[in-house]
Design brief:
Length: 129
């Protein structure tokens, strides 16, 4: 069974930091792009960040650019999202996802949730103001 398990969410004050982790099991995604998305209550799922298979390229949503950093450790089959300068608007359930449509693509990592075919269950991040 393929599983993506997010961890690291919680309650943090505005201006604080959190680091989310997404550990994959059941198969390796070391050759695939990975992404983070979030969904706030009553809103659509939003692109947060994506990373190419080897971490050479990263992409960010406009609302998190300069504050969040995506990274990955293929030896550990894990993707990370370092979040700093958190705001109340960052409150959401955060999901990691894997896109197996390409393999070892140098620059490819999609912003579209429809391109991702494996999803975690999500981890809640709540930022108090």
């Amino acid at each position: 069974q393929v599983l993506l398990a997010e961890s690291g969410g919680g309650l943090v004050q505005a201006g604080g930091s959190l680091r989310l982790s997404c550990a994959a099991s059941g198969r390796s995604f070391s050759g695939n792009a990975m992404g983070w998305f979030r969904q706030a209550s009553g809103k659509e799922r939003e692109f947060v960040a994506a990373i190419t298979w080897n971490g050479g390229w990263t992409y960010y949503g406009d609302s998190v650019k300069g504050r969040f950093t995506i990274s990955r450790d293929n030896a550990k089959n894990t993707v990370y999202l370092q979040m700093t300068s958190l705001k109340s608007d960052d409150t959401a359930v955060y999901y990691c996802a894997a896109d197996t449509s390409t393999y070892a693509s140098r620059t490819y990592a999609s912003r579209l949730p429809t391109m991702y075919d494996y999803w975690g269950q999500g981890t809640q991040v709540t930022v108090s103001s």
